[in-house]
């Protein structure tokens, strides 16, 4: 079983979330920015895709990769500043899921909240991000895919 963690990040937060996911997955997990996404994804049983949103739209780098992300299974972890339980969150996630090629199985989705007041500033050295639920999500998703394989 092999996993890939891909991420798009401008201020560094989604990258930090991607690193947190990478740290709970097996040693042989690959880790790449979206800009370096491979051409084919046949080597992977699951791809974790880290995305973010700009004015209600999926960031452009993720948009170009998600639409050609021909992996068997994809788990999406998104960074957003909207209210975690709002309709906007579901609409944003749906936007990302709908971009994936039709046969892709979405193994899970997770949203990390970033306060809007700091969303434009680069990730600070002292800034602490909530990683525990994200890491649980990644470990559980990986385990489920492994069991089903
Ligand atoms: C100009 C701007 C617009 C944004 N628009 C949205 C949005 O429509 N919905 C949302 O949930 N988050 C929005 N965000 C929050 C980003 O998703 C958040 O800042 C995220 O941390 C960006 O990812 P990064 O830190 O990895 O660069 C916006 C952020 C910026 C700077």
UniProtKB/TrEMBL annotation:
Single GO MF descriptor: oxidoreductase activity, acting on NAD(P)H
InterPro entries: Flavodoxin/NO_synth (IPR008254), Flavodoxin_CS (IPR001226), Flavoprotein-like_sf (IPR029039)
Descriptive protein name: Flavodoxin
Coiled-coil portions: none
Pfam family, one: Flavodoxin_3
SUPFAM superfamilies xrefs: Flavoproteins (SSF52218)
Domain Flavodoxin-like: 4-101
């Amino acid at each position: 079983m092999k996993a890939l963690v891909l991420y798009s990040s401008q201020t560094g937060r989604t990258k930090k979330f991607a690193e947190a996911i990478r740290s709970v997955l097996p040693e042989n997990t690959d880790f790449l920015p979206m800009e370096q996404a491979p051409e084919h994804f046949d080597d992977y049983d699951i791809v974790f895709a880290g995305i973010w949103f700009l004015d209600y739209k999926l960031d452009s780098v993720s948009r170009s990769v998600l639409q050609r992300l021909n992996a068997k299974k994809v788990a999406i972890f998104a960074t957003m500043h909207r209210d975690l339980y709002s309709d906007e969150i579901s609409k944003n996630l749906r936007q990302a899921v709908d971009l994936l090629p039709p046969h892709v199985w979405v193994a899970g989705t997770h949203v990390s909240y970033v306060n809007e007041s700091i969303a434009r500033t680069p990730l600070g050295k002292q800034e602490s991000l909530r990683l525990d639920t994200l890491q649980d999500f990644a470990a559980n998703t990986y385990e489920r895919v492994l069991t089903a394989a």
